Amino acid sequence: MPARATSSGTISFGLVSIPVKVYPAATSRAVHFNLLRRRDKSRLKQHYVAAADGEPVERDEIVKGYEYARGHYVVMTDEELKALEQKADQSIEIEDFVPISSVDPLYFDRSTLLGPDKGGSKAYRLLREAMQETGMVAVGRFATRGRRQLVLIRPVEAGLVMHALFYADEVRSFDDIDLGEEVEPKKAELDLARQLIDQLAGKRFEPGSYEDDYRQALLQAIDKKVAGEEIVAAPSEAPREQIIDLVAALKKSLAARRGGDAERRPARARPRKARRSA
Question: What's the rounded Cα separation, in Å, for the pair 206 and 190?
């Protein structure tokens, strides 16, 4: 089924403008549940109640407030918020071209696909091929939904992908994280860890080789319940032992990995004995 565009926009850099369409890059396959009343399985509706007295609040009584101090709020009206919004003309203004290696994936938020809109095919392909040849990606701003979203555009296969980026002050630093005691690993530990990485190493990331086994198990369980079967819980796995001897744990991991590889190799066929002539 062909993808459907969610919006249109324009990529601009220098005096060049490229009309594009924006498509979702992925579709969630998560299994969703509805909340029901137990006794008759009727759907539940969401209501807001005031924390002060528990009374229900109608939608036309709801306002937006910012908590500037504990328990103290300033109310912003829809008109005041609207006045602060940027012009949402769906324009994508490129500000810089940078090497993709300089962009930490930590800044990536969500992704969309960009396709050429009417009259933009030639300029679209020109931009894609120029970035492909130079190894550069574009960083710019996407004027949408009342704000200017920081974005990155990069060539992927035959098209362009746009990644929404977090701003720098939205990304946490390891300065905020407790990294525990600083202990230098020993050379023997590093050598064993490298061996284990080498055994698990692949040439490239192959997303098709990974499956959502939880979703598959959940859908199978739902099918069984629909068919009137009883769901039997699988026995829980024993908790992993706490690592005390790191070298011993690495050696055990390497041995287990070698054993697994041996099991996956096809057994060599034994040569048949020649029949004796009668």
Answer: 27
pLDDT on residue 238:
64
3-state secondary structure the chain: CCCCCCEEEEEEECCEEEEEEEEECCCCCCCCCCCECCCCCCECCCCEECCCCCCEECHHHCCEEEEEECCEEEEECHHHHHHHCCCCCCEEEEEEEEEHHHCCHHHEEEEEEEEECCCCHHHHHHHHHHHHHHCEEEEEEEEECCEEEEEEEEEECCEEEEEEECCHHHCCCHHHCCCCCCCCCCHHHHHHHHHHHHHHCCCCCCHHHCCCHHHHHHHHHHHHHHCCCCCCCCCCCCCCCCCCCHHHHHHHHHHHHHHHHHHHCCCCCCCCCCCCCC
Question: What is the pLDDT at residue 244?
Answer: 57
Handedness of CA 78, 80, 83, 88 (dihedral sign): negative
Q: Round to whole Å and give the CA distance between 168 and 101.
A: 17
Give the span between the Cα atoms of 158 and 26, in whole angstroms: 17
- The full set of domains in the chain, from first to last, is 7-26+85-170 (2.40.290.10)
Among candidate residues 18, 21, 22, the one with its CA nearest the CA of residue 120: 18
How far apart (Å, rounded) are the C-alpha atoms in residues 129 and 120? 14
Walking along the chain (278 residues) 10 residues at a time, the average pLDDT comes out as 85 90 88 92 92 91 94 91 74 93 93 94 95 95 85 95 94 87 86 86 83 85 85 69 69 76 48 42
